[in-house]
Amino acid sequence: MKTGLVTSDTFQNHNTGPGHPEQIARVSVINENFKKLNNPNILWKKPSIISDEIIRNTHDAKYVDLVKKSFPSKGFSYLDGDTIISPGSKEATFDAAGSIIAAIDGVQNKEFKNAFASVRPPGHHCNQNKAAGFCILNNIAIGAKYLLNKYKYKKIAIIDFDVHHGNGTQDIFYENESVLFISTHQYPYYPGSGSEQEKGKFNNIYNIPLPAGTNSEEYFNAFERALKRLREFKPEFVLISAGFDAHKNDPLAQIKLETEDFYNITKRILETSKKYCNGKVVSILEGGYDLQALKDSTKRHVDALIEFV
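RE: above sequence
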């Protein structure tokens, strides 16, 4: 079976203004690279149209209404100090959330074996009722709630290897025993959360904070703990918040991973979870702000998804 690549052209309409790191080119370089490679093992897929009901299973209704009213008719508006929106941001935002729905349905319906959603804006800093850190809706959390509600899964694992802690995702699932949230991230660093003491009501939050300068060997020594926790949990479905800003060339952080490390991270997640979830894995783009590193690292991430049988 093929690997799904879920994306939409509407990401280009989300204009964050000159000099903003979360720029249109982030997804352009990824998608253009995959089109050029023309790998027959990739099945391209458009996002689903996402209903308010699905979004409101994750986000407060008042917040959803606020977001819908916030998109300006021209120019720019701010949802928080870092999160800039423009008139075209609305389509991009709801297509990003709809992408994880299309990816999950595609895996469930055996349209493809696993999937990567190449989207922006990212999602993991957004909680139930607040935009933050470039994130407007929490795409990965919407996907997890969808798996619990629509497909009646009991054990969902979210693995977040973005260099910044996924504080929004942690907030949303802090008291949900059906969801295990695992995060590796630079610490202390933005957004300031993600200590080992933050464990969740049901010991379902597992943070692995890493100091600035952490190299590949040190990262994988720590990552073994994440895989051990994943085995203990026995997930029925795995979601990945795939940020590529732990790359050594990324301008926004100081973790020193190589491009090839993202292949190995992905491969180890797949191998570790295989016997529990039969390879049901959906990944969605979060951070990554060096364009060359992002292009190369997403290719290796998807290579691991394609190769997995």
